[in-house]
Amino acid sequence: MIDLHTHTILSDGELLPSELVRRAEVKGYTAIALTDHVDYTNIEHVLSSLLKAKYLEDVLDIRVLVGVELTHVPGEKIEPLAALARRSGAELVVVHGETPVEPVRPGTNRAALEAGVDILAHPGFLTREEAEMARERGVCLEITSRAGHNITNGHVARMAKEAGALMVVNTDAHSPADLIDQERAVQIAFGAGLDWEEARKIVVEHAILNK
């Protein structure tokens, strides 16, 4: 099990990085990405703090990836902020997509895809054209277990499948109860409309880490 979208107390999560990573290890995770919410006001502070969590790899049996989730950033600013994140040490850049349960600015999905970020999180009612852009640019589309954001999972999975885009199941975890095991991750992908083999493949093969 891997999870490439989680939050700690460095944004709006409930746990220190050390506790989140340990709880993930107990759940059977082999890798977890710490991707706290950032914009231009806090990105350097968050990344400098999260990078220190890499020490956990020395003592725990889990890979710790350091990333960020660019959140409610105007589309025009996503590409330069993503570049700044990478220069500042981010191993993974996620963009908070156009979920229907938050007032995300229209055009955010497209700007993230044009910037070639790693994951477009909970992208809501993304278009077929956007899904094709995701395929062309190697951006992974998220199937999420998070309540609210997950109401468009079926649409996202359908668009991604039709376009041949990469998908990943993430939790967008903010609390201990949000962490899931591999069996539940497969169930979430299956519930989004994929068949069992497709669901297993996106959970187990981890295309985003191997692209």
Share of residues in strands: 15-25%
Class based on secondary structure composition and strand pairing: alpha/beta
* Uncertain residue ranges: none
Could you give the order of the helices and strands?
Answer: EHEHEHEHEHEHEHHH
Q: What's the gyration radius in Å? A: 16 Å
Order of the strands making up the biggest sheet: 1-2-3-4-5-6-7
Number of domains: 1
| Helix content class | 25-40%
Largest pleated sheet: 7 strands, parallel
What is the residue-mean pLDDT, rounded to a whole number? 96
Q: What is the architecture at the second tier of CATH?
A: Alpha-Beta Barrel
Oligomer: single chain
What name is given to the CATH topology? Answer: TIM Barrel
Q: Give the CA-CA distance, first to last residue.
A: 17 Å
Shape call: globular
CATH class: Alpha Beta
Strands, total number: 7
Number of helices: 9
CATH superfamily: Metal-dependent hydrolases
Characterization of this structure:
- This protein has a 7-stranded parallel β-sheet.
- α5 (128-137) links the parallel β5 (119-121) and β6 (140-144).
- Helices cover 39% and strands 17% of the residues.
- The protein is globular and about 40 Å long.
- The protein contains 9 helices and 7 strands.
